């Protein structure tokens, strides 16, 4: 499958968040391919978005990668323990990003099961299979992504996105999750998911 190029990421976060659905996130890990189809993503619109880490032009060491070129990884921790994988969008100096919230396993599913539950995939319960990578922290554990990947180029050969298959699906737009502090921004319909995907 064709790898996404820099121009895909060099656009408005809302557009990228919608269009990254169905694309495949690949991690080339110790000679193996771990891959998952994106089924849920959230847009963060930078300086004017009260839910964004870069709101109001905030510029710290943590968020500096968002001010750089598009198509790089922005990683951060939630609850002091779970990594979240974000894609930097827009041109240099405009700190927007897309949070990858959930995915569907495509390749390396046994490795994902081991990373998440320490079991073979066949030994997982129905709820464990459904919950394998259906949250941002779960996804990072299963795909072996941590904060050391902050600043990695998605146009490189270690972590990248591929086009995916040309399937048709409906996209649902809803409110973003866990941002009750963000005033009116908590009501923006900037979270996108593939309708009907478990």
TrEMBL record:
GO terms for biological process: base-excision repair. This is Putative 3-methyladenine DNA glycosylase. Its EC number is 3.2.2.-. The keyword Ribonucleoprotein does not apply. Keywords: DNA damage, DNA repair, Glycosidase, Hydrolase. The keyword DNA repair applies. The lineage of its organism: Bacteria, Bacillati, Bacillota, Clostridia, Lachnospirales. Belongs to the DNA glycosylase MPG family. GO terms for molecular function: alkylbase DNA N-glycosylase activity; DNA binding. InterPro entries: Formyl_transferase-like_C_sf, MPG, MPG_sf. CDD domains: AAG.
């Amino acid at each position: 499958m064709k790898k996404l190029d820099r121009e895909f990421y060099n656009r408005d976060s809302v557009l990228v968040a919608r269009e990254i659905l169905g694309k495949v996130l690949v991690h080339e890990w110790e000679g193996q391919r771990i891959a998952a189809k994106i089924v849920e993503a959230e847009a963060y619109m930078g300086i004017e978005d009260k839910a964004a880490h870069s709101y109001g032009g905030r510029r710290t060491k943590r968020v500096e990668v968002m001010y750089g070129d598009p198509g790089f990884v922005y990683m951060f921790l939630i609850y002091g323990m779970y990594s979240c994988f974000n894609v930097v969008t827009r041109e240099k100096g405009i700190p927007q990003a897309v949070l990858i919230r959930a995915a569907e396993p495509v390749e390396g599913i046994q490795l994902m099961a081991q990373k998440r539950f320490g079991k073979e995939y066949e030994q997982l319960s129905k709820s464990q299979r459904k919950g394998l990578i259906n949250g941002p922290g779960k996804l990072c554990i299963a795909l072996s992504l941590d904060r050391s990947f902050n600043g990695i180029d998605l146009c490189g050969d270690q972590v990248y996105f591929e086009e995916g298959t040309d399937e048709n699906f409906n996209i649902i737009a809803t409110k973003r999750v866990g941002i009750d502090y963000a005033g009116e921004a908590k009501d923006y319909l900037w979270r996108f998911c593939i309708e009907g995907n478990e």
